[in-house]
Design a protein that fits this description.
The complex is a heterodimer of chains A (826) and B (70). Chain A has 826 residues and is of the alpha+beta class. Helix content of chain A is 63%, strand content 8%. Chain A is built from 23 helices and 13 strands. In chain A, the strands form four sheets. In chain A, strands 1, 2, 9, 10 and 11 form a five-stranded antiparallel beta sheet that branches. In chain A, helix 4 (99-164) packs antiparallel against helix 5 (169-184), helix 17 runs parallel beside helix 21 (707-731) and helix 20 (655-685) packs across helix 21. Chain A is extended, with a radius of gyration of 44 Å. The two termini of chain A are 52 Å apart. Chain B is an all-alpha fold and 70 residues long. In chain B, helix 1 (3-24) packs antiparallel against helix 2. Chain B starts with a helix and ends in a 12-residue tail after the last helix. The chains are: A alpha+beta (826), B mainly alpha (70). Chains A and B meet through helix 11, helix 15, strand 13, helix 16 and helix 17 of A and helix 2 of B.
């Protein structure tokens, strides 16, 4: 046991040792100190101003300024996005800009941009109006000209009628009378012309018809080009309309309706010469406006480009400043108001680095007073910090997803690195599919650098993050594929010839009684003769179920042994004597014994029925075993194991609560006295003890020992273990179930798709068959089965393995670091 | 190739693998111990898998019965 203590410590096994440090920083070097600490990224500040609202904190103004600046930056980004420009990916030269200068610069840029936008909006509006006016003028010509022609025609007609038909003098004169009022009252028929969008045209017309009681003529013609609507930035189809009416009332009504429907009215002179003149004016103004608009756009684009060059750098700067001020807000001012006091967790190995950074900060800010950095005691549990690299990071995240390890308890990730891909492979075992997975993993690893710097979608990111997990999964899958002897469900004779041969030369009984085993066992893996035989499933099922039980019992034993090492580390001898020992005894006397029986049965080839043996071990332990006897003394051994298992249950249930109670009643009074003394020492040596909200050093009041609570807790724990022993062992049978499913799916696709299609001589059918086989393999077997086996292997680790030893109620170490900021705001 | 011989082969492969990692990636005692743990775990897992399948086939209770149609 001492050898274990002499082994070097494994960083990944237990989390880094942390210390609570107190920083006393003079105000002038505070900003710089926090900035350097942020670059270092190894200190997690505690929020000493927890009870204050965000507006009561000291540096609230600076935070507001930073927020304002980041709003401006977001505005620029939006504008650039709208204009279709991109951010320049290269960060500009790293000349430091002062925050105040940046603020002023940003305000100027924003003002400029807003003005430019406003102007261009106005120009655009005027441009639109002119465009509409132009359309109305064009179409109005079409509407009015026929009238003019019409009246001219009528004139000539009238003359003819007058000359030709003297008989119809009355009618002619009537016609004349009709026409003349028409002609002389041409000024009485008025019109309103304008533009309305197409969707509203029908309702508009109907409304006009109703209000003027039908005394109107509505002419419309679609506009040639759609116009950009400035409000919605879309192209809208318009219609040019002309409403002929008479009377003042009608005019007023029509104008109101035009306003209501948002139709723009433009006055069009009836005289065609005037119309042509106005059209020429409008056209020239339009071309002027176009050039002005373009010039405006170019100006704006130039301004945006000059900003784009530096935008990323500015955004980073503002983010950092905001983070620094947020952190400064967590610190407290001391009595003299000249120093800031802060507390934080940092790993012990980082102490020198932090002290270095603080010294540099003092030097760079030309402060007279150094920064004080000293260790404090604390009662609170420190955060958990594991130093991981690319490879172990994915596994640590898998473990953390279930629960972050308590401070310094054993980290299951150490074993998960291997057992997780291994259990995956047990469920996935096929070396053909394993090679496909391997290719995928190698592609991801080969492109590590390129994919690492890009921004990936969430699915690709998960896949990329788990590339090493995928690699190991693939390698173990290839190994298990060789063991199960399956290459896309086809067995091979790689490791020698099969051990099974026909009983005689004619092989006549091969289909009824079967082959016979001659010679040595097939040296590596499942004998290829089994595939396709009728007794394949009974054999493989028996093999895989027993394999699952064996793996399950091993992994659970590993879990209990890790709990022993945890108890040893935390010097908790109660846990060792009254939890570890009875748990080991219980699990192994029942399921360890079952594993032993399995191995003995395999070694001896006995025909004993293990179900029968296990069940009757409980039901009638003293009965004679008869033909189920596997070894001498089995009956006696079974009785002993049963007794030991029955004793183990109260052993893990009762002693611990009583001993804890005894400990508490003995030790607690002494502890209070000790704490009282400790207070005295602290009071004299520490000047700041009055001011500091020293929550870490106040003990949480006298913890009451609630016996019934402890007892119930222990009972729950014991029941969970005892019942869990059965259910968890059975749960491992999913290794069998998924492996069977994979093998069967693979067989079906191979035999019923590929072989079937290959049987035909037709090239097309073979091609289609191959394609269906490829798709089915890729989507169902490679994707769905991978996810399924991944999930079940994960569950086996999270529940069956970890509930033997893992408490997982710690919290993760989140240092103040600039590196972690970049991902937050995006 | 009996059971024991192949078991010895597995042990040998495990030892060689740990020596190789010690030679090529020697980065401090903690990492070394971690790599050793990983290799031991992997060797034990792989050996168990092989041993279970081998033992199950040593004295089989049923034999392959071929399909009639062929």
């Amino acid at each position: 046991m001492e050898y274990i203590d002499r082994l070097p410590s494994m960083d990944l096994m237990r989390s880094e040792k942390m210390m609570l440090a107190q920083l006393i920083i003079p105000v002038e070097s505070a900003h710089r100190a926090v900035s350097y600490l942020g670059q270092l990224g190894l200190l997690q500040f505690r929020d000493l101003n927890d009870d204050k609202s965000p507006f009561q904190r000291t540096f609230v103004n600076q935070v507001k300024r930073c927020a304002e600046m980041s709003r401006k930056l977001r505005f620029f980004k939006d504008q650039m996005h709208k204009a279709g420009l991109g951010l320049s990916p290269h960060p500009a030269s790293n000349t430091d800009i002062e925050l105040e200068d940046l603020e002023v610069g940003l305000a100027e840029h924003e003002h400029e941009l807003i003005e430019m936008n406003h102007n261009s909006e106005k120009l655009q509006k005027t441009y639109n109006e002119l465009l509409e006016f132009k359309m109305v003028l064009q179409k109005a010509g079409d509407f009015l000209m026929p009238d003019g022609n019409h009246s001219a025609d009528h004139e000539t007609e009238l003359d003819e009628n007058v000359h030709a038909n003297n008989d119809y003098a009355d009618s002619a004169s009537l016609l004349e009378q009709e026409m003349q009022p028409g002609m002389s009252d041409q000024s009485g028929v008025k019109f309103v012309s304008g533009v309305i969008c197409k969707s509203k045209a029908l309702r508009f017309e109907r409304m006009l018809f109703r209000t003027t009681r039908g005394n109107m003529l509505f002419n419309q013609a679609p506009a040639d080009d759609p116009i950009v609507d400035p409000a919605s930035n879309e192209m809208v189809e318009n219609i040019v309309f002309m409403v002929f009416f008479s009377g003042e009332q009608a005019r007023k009504k029509i104008h109101k309706i035009c306003e209501a429907f948002g139709a723009n009215c433009y006055p069009v002179p009836e005289d065609s010469i005037k119309r042509r003149q106005i059209t020429r004016d409008v056209l020239s103004r339009l071309s002027e406006l176009e050039t002005t608009l373009e010039a405006g756009l170019r100006h704006r684009d130039a301004a945006l480009n000059s900003i784009a060059f530096q935008l990323t750098k500015w955004m980073n700067m503002v983010r950092r400043e905001k983070a620094i001020y947020d952190t400064l807000n967590m610190l407290n001012f001391d009595v003299t108001k000249k120093c800031l006091v802060g507390e934080g967790w940092c790993p012990i190995f980082a102490k020198t680095m932090i002290q270095d950074a603080l010294q540099r900060a003092t030097f760079d800010s030309s402060s007279q007073v150094g920064i004080i950095f000293h260790v404090m005691d604390s009662i609170e549990s420190p955060p958990t910090f594991f130093r991981t690299n690319h490879f172990t990071n994915a596994y640590q995240e898998i473990v953390d997803a279930y629960g972050v390890a308590k401070y310094q308890e054993a980290n299951p990730a150490v074993y998960t690195v291997i057992t997780f891909p291994f259990l995956f492979a047990v469920m996935f075992g096929d070396w053909g599919h394993g090679i496909c997975l391997l290719l995928g993993a190698l592609v991801l690893i080969a492109r590590e650098k390129r994919l690492g710097s890009q921004k990936l979608g969430s699915f690709m990111e998960m896949l990329f993050g788990g590339r090493y997990v995928l690699l190991l999964m693939a390698l173990f899958s290839i190994y298990c594929g060789f063991i199960y002897n399956e290459f896309f469900s086809v067995p091979f004779h790689i490791f020698g010839s099969s051990a099974y041969k026909c009983r005689d030369a004619t092989c006549s009984e091969a289909g009824t009684i079967g082959l016979i085993k001659v010679g040595d066992t097939y040296p590596f893996g499942v004998d290829p003769s089994w595939r396709g035989s009728r007794s394949e499933l009974p054999f493989l099922n028996s093999l895989k179920m027993k394999m699952s039980i064996l793996f399950g019992v091993s992994q659970m034993n590993l879990g209990i042994i890790i709990s022993y090492f945890n108890a040893r580390f935390f010097k908790n001898s109660i846990d060792i004597k009254y939890q570890f020992v009875p748990q080991m005894i219980f699990l192994n006397s029942l399921f360890g014994y079952l594993s032993l029986l399995i191995i003995i049965k395999w070694c001896t080839g006995s025909q004993a029925d293990l179900y029968h043996v296990m069940i009757y071990m409980f039901l009638s332990p003293f009965e004679d075993l008869g033909e189920n006897k596997l070894f001498w003394g089995q009956g006696v051994l079974q009785v002993i194991l049963l007794l030991v298992a029955v004793i183990a249950v109260p052993w893990m249930l009762f002693p611990k609560p009583f001993i804890l109670k005894k400990l508490h009643t003995e030790v607690a009074p002494a502890l209070i006295r000790f704490q009282g003394r400790a207070y005295g020492i602290l009071g004299t040596s520490d000047m700041y003890s009055d001011e500091e909200p020293d929550s870490a050093r106040h003990p949480h009041g006298e913890e009451e020992f609630n016996f019934s609570e402890v007892f119930v807790h222990q009972m729950i724990h014991s029941i969970e273990f005892v019942l869990g022993a059965v259910s968890n062992t059975a749960s491992y049978l999913r290794l069998w179930a998924l492996s069977l499913a994979h093998s069967e799916l693979s067989t079906v696709f191979y035999e019923k798709v590929l072989l079937l299609a290959w049987g035909y001589n037709n090239f097309m059918i073979r091609l289609v068959g191959l394609a269906v086989f490829a798709f089915a393999t890729a989507f169902i077997l490679l994707m769905m089965e991978t996810l399924s086996a991944f999930l079940h292997a994960l569950r086996l680790h999270w529940v069956e393995f970890q509930n033997k030893f893992y408490s997982g109620d710690g919290y993760k170490f989140k240092p103040f670091s600039f590196a972690s900021l970049t991902d937050e705001d995006e | 190739m009996g059971f024991l011989v192949t078991t010895l082969i597995f042990v040998l492969v495990g030892i060689i693998a740990s020596l190789l990692t010690r030679i090529c990636c020697n980065k401090g005692p903690s990492t070394n111990l971690l790599l050793l743990t990983l290799i031991i775990t992997a060797t034990v897992c792989c050996w168990m898998m092989w041993a279970i399948v081998y033992l199950a086939q040593m004295n089989p209770l049923i034999v392959p019965i071929l399909n009639e149609e062929e």
